[in-house]
Amino acid sequence: MPEADIVFHTRSAGISAEGVRDQYADGKAAKVWEIFIGDKKSRTDNYKNFIVELLRGKGCKRVLDVACGTGVDSIMLLEEGFEVVSVDASDKMLKYALQERWNRRKEPAFDNWIIEEANWLTLYDDVRDILQDGFDAVLCLGNSFAHMMDSFGDQREQKQAIRNFEKCVKPGGLLLIDHRNYDHIMETGATPAKSLYYNSSHTADIKTSVLYVCGKPAMVAMDYLINVNNEQNEFRLSYYPHELKVFTTMLKEIFGSKSGHTIYGDFKPLDDIKDPAFYIHVMEKVK
Ligand SMILES: C[S@@+](CC[C@H](N)C(=O)[O-])C[C@H]1O[C@@H](n2cnc3c(N)ncnc32)[C@H](O)[C@@H]1O
């Protein structure tokens, strides 16, 4: 059990079929996820051009979305003509992606959309049969990676997951991975309720608690309050608070010092934005 969980139990006890703890297993977050993220079109409009231009600029065609959840980013890319494979550990979240594929099955892109259960710790083996010579790009967006805690205090599982992402990227391909600006969250003790990913008018608040283990921030619990038809919905998700510097070192260690690495703040160059809500890392694997 992750170190921090022993002290402060925050997560659904659910275990996904993939064997990892599934924070979405009680279905509470999955049920209101699409309400929480707001209008899907306006959400993706915020960053669609950035991602699509970046991927097209690098000649990417085949993309692996490793935290597809209900499928919002995958669907955006399918609509833009990319070939997409989507995986996630939570069947409760995947259910919504599978439903969308069924609803739009007459469109060839959706008919060909591959959706599988997979766990980042075993990802390379999970997708080996469909890997071919690697994906042009691997995406892990929406603050998903931070769900992986540091069970042993040395980030070994997080490194294993990123190593698996790296192995799924073909030489010269990209990894796009993001996390909230935890440096700022640690400084202020607060999480902005609105951001480029989450713009729903229904989100009332995100209450933030930080758990320190041996003087080190080990877990951030976010209690999301969402009003739907005058009814309050609540769900709690917990995250590992990645520091920008440490996360950057981890990526560089795994991809190698010759790999390309650019960081964006809310999809803008870092110099153009102060205290972004999200950091997006773009890794370019050596050819
Ligand atoms: C915050 S949701 C984001 C989904 C989507 N990318 C979005 O932005 O709406 C995070 C997703 O990561 C998935 N996830 C967390 N840990 C995982 C793991 N170890 N392996 C695979 N998926 C995982 C969860 O099941 C969840 O669907």
Automatic annotation (TrEMBL):
Sorted alphabetically, which keywords does the UniProt record give? Cytoplasm, Folate-binding, Methyltransferase, Phosphoprotein, S-adenosyl-L-methionine, Transferase
Q: Please name the GO terms of the biological process aspect recorded for this protein, alphabetically.
A: methylation; one-carbon metabolic process; protein homotetramerization; regulation of gluconeogenesis; S-adenosylhomocysteine metabolic process; S-adenosylmethionine metabolic process; sarcosine metabolic process
Q: What is its main location?
A: cytoplasm
Localization per record:
Cytoplasm
Q: Which GO terms describe its molecular function?
A: folic acid binding; glycine binding; glycine N-methyltransferase activity; identical protein binding; S-adenosyl-L-methionine binding
Catalytically driven reaction(s)? glycine + S-adenosyl-L-methionine = sarcosine + S-adenosyl-L-homocysteine + H(+)
Specify which residues bind S-adenosyl-L-methionine according to the UniProt entry for this protein: 24, 33, 43, 67, 88, 119-120, 141
Read off the SUPFAM superfamilies from this record: S-adenosyl-L-methionine-dependent methyltransferases (SSF53335)
What are the EC numbers?
A: 2.1.1.20
Which InterPro entries does this chain map to? Answer: Gly/Sar_N_MeTrfase, Methyltranfer_dom, SAM-dependent_MTases_sf
Task: Say which family it is in.
Answer: Belongs to the class I-like SAM-binding methyltransferase superfamily. Glycine N-methyltransferase family.
Q: Which PANTHER family does the UniProt entry name for this protein?
A: GLYCINE N-METHYLTRANSFERASE (PTHR16458)
* Name by which UniProt lists this protein: Glycine N-methyltransferase
Q: From which organism does this entry originate?
A: Hermetia illucens
